[in-house]
Amino acid sequence: MTITAPAGSAADPGTHPLERLEADFYGFQDLLTPVEQDAVARVRDFMEREVRPVADDYWERAECPVHLFKPFAELGSVGAAWPETAQFESSAVFRGWVGMELARVDSSFCTFIGVSSGLAMSSIGLGGSPEQRDRWLPPMARGDLIGAFGLTEPLSGSDTARGLRTTATRHGDTWVLNGAKRWIGNATFADVVVVWAKDTADDQVKGFLVRRGAPGFTATKIERKQSLRIVQNADITLVDVEVAEADRLQRIDSFRDLANVLRVTRDGVSWQALGTMIGAYEAAVRYTKEREQFGHPIASYQLVQDKLATALGNITASLGMCVRVAQMQDAGTQRDEHAALAKAFVTTRMRETVALAREVCGGNGITLDTGVARYFADAEAVYTFEGTRDMNHLIVGRSVTGHAAFV
């Protein structure tokens, strides 16, 4: 696919020079093309100008700045993977880098955007017919429509492949959905929710596009969260929800097809974890340079530098893994175990890194004022979703040994 960006567009190179992040210690940014670097610079500017000043307040109130979705989409990075919506030719490294830039400022905002542009659009891009792709992807890429992704259930998380309880029964050209979903981001305000259900006729997983306001569909916000508080997760109930056959994803006939979507989005979570640890690391470095104890900035002490160096090592190793897995995605050589190892490794390193960042900030590290506490709390959700560490290690272990150890 070759797309030429019009002059003056978000893809027009050279207008937004991309400054290298100090956390990009080995210069992976250089792998991005000039057009990609310019697009990243626009995203970074948007996040610093529009999101960072308000992130703490929205996080504390557990509210979502939905009004920022369309302005962000106008930058041209949403839908970059699909020919129907791409504004310029881009790599998987670029698309991952954009997610990293979002999470570097606010992991909740990254999830908010990623649910629609990643999970929902990837479901349609990989599983939809050409007509469905033309119908849904362009308005979603423009920010005119917001998507959600309904897979996890109250009693089904890691065992989704076998334990999906939401059902779909066909009656002529209409499907009837019944069941429940949990932890569904964006569901309280999404224009369309991709709902995954088992066909009662063949017991295979199918995907359905459920539109806002569908009779029998109810989304209730989950309260009292202490991680990714900006994200509006919801419990969904589906009671005799009718969906036309035209709104069934036409290229999804089994869990194996759904797994293709999860493989791509699991990569995105690795980049999100990377951005989360970079954001915490940057906040910690700033704090240690400003905070004085015993007459000197604490950045000048050996034990503090040791923790910062460990954090930077985690970031650098994780960035290298994210980049390589993205390159394999472009080359068509990526397999489930590659995405699984990256997700497990990077989120584990993230957990250690945000803890180190909080530690060097001392007692002040538990407040939003230092800029570390939000990353520390949000990391827990990122560590868990898109497959726990244990489940991803079992995917890798099956590849390594040839034996499946799943229950």
UniProtKB/TrEMBL annotation:
Span of domain Acyl-CoA dehydrogenase/oxidase N-terminal: 36-144
Domain of life: Bacteria
Domain (Acyl-CoA oxidase/dehydrogenase middle) ranges: 148-241
GO molecular function, one term: acyl-CoA dehydrogenase activity
UniProt keyword list: FAD, Flavoprotein, Oxidoreductase
Domain Acyl-CoA dehydrogenase/oxidase C-terminal: 260-400
Name of the molecule in the record: Glutaryl-CoA dehydrogenase
Keyword Oxidoreductase in annotation: yes
One example of a Gene Ontology biological process annotation: fatty acid beta-oxidation
